[in-house]
Specification:
Blueprint (H helix, E strand, L loop, with lengths): L3 H7 L8 E8 L2 E9 L3 H23 L7 H7 L2 E5 L2 E8 L1 H8 L3
Antiparallel strand pairs: 1-2, 2-4, 3-4
Helix pairs in contact: 1-2
Length: 106
């Protein structure tokens, strides 16, 4: 299964039909980008709220010393989410050392 942090952050995506994740260049290095569409604007607003709340919960748990503070967890906690109509976009900066560890052995 997925690590706990991933499950928490992305749990709201179960209500969407399709999710696109891309990894590419950004203003300051590399960025993971999520794009999905909800059935309507209300659902999109709700999804953005859930994603933001889930990231806030991860941050609070980490601040109490009860959550993983690995590079992956730090990346998840840096998520930023926006909505445009029915579209929801999430962005996470990806540290080079995290990318190196994820691609080691490829």
């Amino acid at each position: 299964g997925l690590p706990g942090g991933l499950r928490v952050v992305f749990s709201g995506l179960t209500q969407t039909d399709q999710v696109l994740l891309t990894l590419g260049p950004a203003d300051k290095g590399i960025e993971l980008r999520l794009e999905t569409a909800s059935k309507n604007e209300s659902d999109a607003r709700l999804l953005v709220s859930q994603l933001r709340n889930n990231v806030a919960m991860l941050k609070e748990t980490a601040a109490r010393g009860k959550e993983d503070t690995s590079d992956l967890a730090k990346m998840l906690m840096s998520g930023v989410f926006d909505q445009s109509g029915t579209r929801v976009i999430g962005r996470w900066p990806v540290a080079q050392n995290l990318l190196d560890s994820l691609t080691a052995g490829l």
